[in-house]
Amino acid sequence: RQKINITPEQINAYYAAHKQDYTVSQEQFQLAQILVAVPANATAAQRIAARKKADALRKRALAGEDFGDLARQNSDDDSAAKGGELGSFAPDDILDQVRVAVAKLNAGQISEVVETSHGFHIIKVEQHQRSGVRPLSETREEIRARLEDEATEDYLKHYISEDLMKGHHIETFL
């Protein structure tokens, strides 16, 4: 692999020739959450305490604490065991309040605290694929890796067939 050098021009040419491979037909979100649950019959004091807890957890996440660890230790839903991971969703598959909170966020960003009938949610956008062609800046390393893999495979085939086999006497026994 050290002998393989992929140039920016090769990446640009590959991207231009394979744009269809980098086109997202439907917007998708991969989300994680921390839920501070609020019972349906909660008092005003319970709601205020839950909101304060959610605000404090969001601040900790924004300060750099591991979101998955915070979810495992503090989330009040089943996703806590998976570090808050919820999975992938189309925009129509998520609650309206959550969709509004994450619509403009990019991968790695954390939403404001979102209130729903379940309680207070802190949502982390793990991935956000917007419909349309993914920009080259987003796909550059993926393309570089693919081209390096292809070039490495070609190099090894050539090395085996040309250098190794021609430089050695090979006998086959049946």
What does this structure look like?
- This protein has 174 residues and is α+β, with helices and mostly antiparallel strands.
- Helices cover 43% and strands 19% of the residues.
- The chain contains 5 helices and 6 strands, in the order H-E-E-H-H-E-H-E-E-E-H.
- The protein has helices spanning 8-17, 44-62, 67-74, 96-102, 136-166, and strands at 23-24, 28-37, 85-89, 114-116, 119-129, 132-133.
- The strands form 2 sheets. The protein has a 4-stranded antiparallel beta sheet, sandwiched between helices. It has a two-stranded antiparallel ribbon with strand order 1-6.
- Helix 1 (8-17) packs across helix 5 (136-166).
- The longest helix has 31 residues, at 136-166.
- The model has no long low-confidence stretch (mean pLDDT 87).
Largest sheet: 4 strands, antiparallel
Query: In total, how many beta strands?
Result: 6
| Distance N to C terminus | 35 Å
- What is the 3D form? elongated
